């Protein structure tokens, strides 16, 4: 199995057409079809089903599609790192969208102290970056709890409370903070990532919240709030997404999320990773 075959395979999957993939790859269709047949023969599976509209992935093809992305990322990362040997060090780091503001001051300080270091940044949700770390695609990552930490080493960069985000027309009594009891009679929007954390905090106090909506996109949830449909509960660092809305801190010890550095367990950090950790954890 060759890297170029995986690149060809993913291009066909992305376009749903061997002819269109050949056009984008600047090659003719027969050799592209031949490479895919070779790949299928080597793996002893069928990767595509032919339809009147083009091709679709089989179950085996879907599995290879996901794995191929990681393999190609790792190959490109290795190529960059090897090409920079003796010239520049490379820090391969994962960052979630909601932790950028927290980690950037550390990155800026680290960069000033280590001008010989370039960065390879992978963006993604916490669970995606966790997998990248385990697969060796990144060296270290910035993630947010809740998260299972059995298979990684970790250190806390920052802890923050949750906030209640509501339409300005809803009565807030001018208070800067609330407790969960204040939210019992409000319809709530919960970011699915924190559903269990939030519901457990309510249940510990024998409170039953009215969950109006579960969502996966904080930006989308703010639109519901702007329409006055419900109050959303987010980590405090998401407050910049809530312009024009009322944000009140939830004064609840059980409703705290932590921003962590994580790295592989049982593996000594490389020199560049250790230098970065020293800046972050001093």
Automatic annotation (TrEMBL):
Keywords: DNA-binding, Transcription, Transcription regulation. It comes from the Bacteria. Residues 1-58 form the HTH lysR-type domain. GO terms for cellular component: cytosol. The keyword NADP does not apply. Gene3D superfamilies: 3.40.190.290, Winged helix-like DNA-binding domain superfamily/Winged helix DNA-binding domain. GO terms for molecular function: DNA binding; DNA-binding transcription factor activity. The keyword DNA-binding applies. Pfam families: HTH_1, LysR_substrate. Belongs to the LysR transcriptional regulatory family. This is LysR substrate binding domain protein. It comes from Coprococcus comes ATCC 27758.
């Amino acid at each position: 199995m060759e890297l170029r075959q995986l690149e060809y395979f993913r291009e066909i999957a992305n376009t749903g057409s061997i002819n269109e993939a050949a056009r984008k790859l600047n090659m003719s269709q027969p050799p592209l079809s031949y490479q895919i047949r070779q790949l299928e023969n080597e793996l002893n599976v069928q990767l595509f089903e032919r339809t009147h509209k083009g091709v679709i992935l089989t179950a085996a093809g879907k599995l290879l599609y996901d794995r191929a992305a990681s393999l190609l990322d790792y190959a490109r990362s290795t190529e960059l790192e090897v090409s920079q040997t003796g010239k520049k060090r490379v820090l391969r780091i994962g960052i979630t969208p909601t932790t950028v503001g927290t980690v950037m001051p550390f990155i800026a300080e680290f960069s000033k102290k280590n001008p010989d270091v370039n960065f390879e940044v992978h963006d993604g949700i916490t669970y995606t970056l966790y997998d990248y770390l385990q697969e060796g695609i990144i060296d270290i990552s910035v993630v947010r709890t809740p998260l299972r930490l059995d298979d990684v080493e970790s250190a806390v960069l920052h802890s923050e409370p949750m906030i209640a985000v509501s339409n300005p027309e809803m009565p807030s009594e001018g208070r800067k903070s609330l407790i969960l009891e204040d939210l019992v009679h409000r319809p709530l929007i919960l970011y699915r990532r924190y559903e269990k954390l939030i519901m457990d905090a309510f249940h510990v106090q024998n409170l039953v919240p009215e969950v109006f909506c579960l969502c996966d996109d904080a930006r989308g949830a703010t639109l519901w709030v702007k329409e006055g449909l419900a109050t959303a509960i987010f980590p405090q660092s998401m407050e910049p997404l809530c312009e024009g809305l009322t944000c009140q801190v939830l004064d609840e010890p059980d409703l705290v999320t932590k921003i962590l550095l994580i790295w592989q367990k049982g593996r000594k950090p490389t020199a560049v990773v250790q230098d970065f950790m020293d800046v972050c954890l001093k």
